[in-house]
Design brief:
By secondary structure, the protein is mainly alpha-helical. It has five helices and no strands. The longest helix is centred in the last third of the chain and has 70 residues.
């Protein structure tokens, strides 16, 4: 569920009416795993959720760490990663679609008269293309679902705050009515 495209989360329209501070899901954004999961002292604030350290009198940010390279990405691949592919969101759907597309296109090319190596090349190309297209479609659906869930949470928070406000107003009205009733029953004279 990490946002790999560096887009900000959907804009929320502020706290619900009657709330004194934003809900917890707005105050504490999700902290995502850092590439290669190494925490250096200058980047340790990213994993602990704190605000980034500032240096200098103007509060300037320290220089950013260099972006990871392709070589860093390849070196971060471990043998166990291949055994955990089914845990990656959308991987199953992508592979299944790619396998189906590769089988259909490869078999179709072979039946139409292409030699086996050429049909295998077409099958691999269809597998690759089908996997990527299905992966991207699934990720787009997940982003849309995540945005919808953020809206649902926002609406639920707002409704709960409204309900709490209404209950508080009703309680204050009942107390005022009770006080008025007691005042009306109070006698205008005293025996002692």
């Amino acid at each position: 569920m990490a946002q790999d495209d560096n887009t900000p989360p959907p804009n929320l329209r502020g706290p619900p009416p009657g709330a004194t501070e934003p809900p917890d899901h707005v105050k504490q954004p999700q902290v995502y795993e850092i590439f290669n999961s190494s925490t250096t002292p200058e980047r340790s604030h990213i994993t602990d959720g704190a605000t980034p350290p500032t240096t200098g009198p103007e509060g300037q940010q320290p220089p950013r760490a260099p972006r990871p390279t392709f070589r860093d990405g390849v070196q971060s691949i471990q043998k166990d990663d291949f055994f955990r592919l089914h845990h990656i969101p959308c991987a199953r759907e992508g592979f299944m679609t790619g396998i189906g597309a590769g089988a259909v296109v490869g078999a179709g090319r072979f039946i139409t008269g292409a030699r086996a190596p050429k049909a295998a090349n077409w099958a691999f190309g269809a597998f690759f293309l089908g996997s990527i297209v299905q992966w991207e479609y699934c990720q787009a659906q997940r982003r849309k679902e995540r945005a919808a869930m953020a809206r649902v949470v926002e609406v639920m928070d707002r409704k709960q705050a409204e309900k709490k406000t209404q209950e508080e107003a009703a309680r204050l009205r009942r107390q005022a009515q009770e006080r008025a009733r007691l005042e009306a029953e109070k006698r205008w004279y005293k025996f002692w």
